[in-house]
Amino acid sequence: VDHVDLTVKSGEFFCVLGPNAAGKTTTIKMIVGLIRPTSGAVRVCDLDVQEQPVDVRHRMAYVPDFPFLYDKLTPMEFFRFTGRLFGMEEIQMDECIRELIPRFSLDSYLDLSIESLSHGTRQRIAIVSALMHAPDVFVLDEPMVGLD
């Protein structure tokens, strides 16, 4: 990845397209703070990703192509776990869960262990958990991989 200059305004959708090994995932990992650029800086919501990582993390959600989920938990337990990580109150979590679960057709999976679910269902669980804290920026890497 060389000389990237990217600005995405509030409310805009932006897709990074390119052939295999073009640097799409590397660029995304720099944006979300998983790897450090060798030069320059990455800013999200006017915050430096390297200098203010916690502040950036609270403003952003990231779902990788193969998200890590705690397999032994149920989706409901995972949503509550995620909500607590972001300091959400129980009432906030309940409202988000009530709103997002039907949108992603997860109603019938809430009490099953995550390890028993398909990759596509797991992907939807990751997306819901990422959206729960109402991020300003939502970054998905390969969002369609394995979706049901």
Automatic annotation (TrEMBL):
Domain ABC transporter: 2-144
Record's keyword terms, sorted: ATP-binding, Nucleotide-binding, Transport
UniProt source species: marine metagenome
Stretches assigned to coiled coil: none
The protein's name in its UniProt record: ABC transporter domain-containing protein
CDD domains in the record: ABC_DR_subfamily_A
Pfam families: ABC_tran
MF GO annotations: ATP binding; ATP hydrolysis activity
Gene3D superfamilies, A to Z: P-loop containing nucleotide triphosphate hydrolases
